[in-house]
Known about the structure:
This protein is α+β, with helices and mostly antiparallel strands. The chain is built from 4 helices and 3 strands. The protein has 2 domains: 1-32, no CATH class; 34-90. It has a 3-stranded antiparallel beta sheet, with no helix packed on it. The longest helix is centred in the middle third of the chain and has 14 residues, at 35-48.
Amino acid sequence: MALKQHATSGAEVARDADSAGDPGTDSTYTIGLSATQVKRLEETAAQLGVSPAALIRVVIADFLNDPDEDFMREVEFVLEENAELYRRLA
C-alpha cells in the first residue's frame, strides 16, 4: 500500500494511493492531530452521539459542498507562502 505524504502548515496528511483516481473507490486519508484536537473531536462526537470518523466525514462533506470564502482565501495564502517549501519536499 503506497502512501503519498503532504506537508500543510506542519500537519502531515497521508493518502492511500492504491485507490487514487478510481471514482468507484473510497480513499483513505491519515492526518496528524494534536492531543487537544483529538480530545475536542472525541468530545464533540460524543455530544452529538456519533463516532469521530462520522463527524469528520460530515464536516468534510459540508465544507466541500459549501466552502467558506474566508477559509479558501486563507488556504490560498498558505499555499502561496509555502510554495517553495512544497517544491523542495516533493
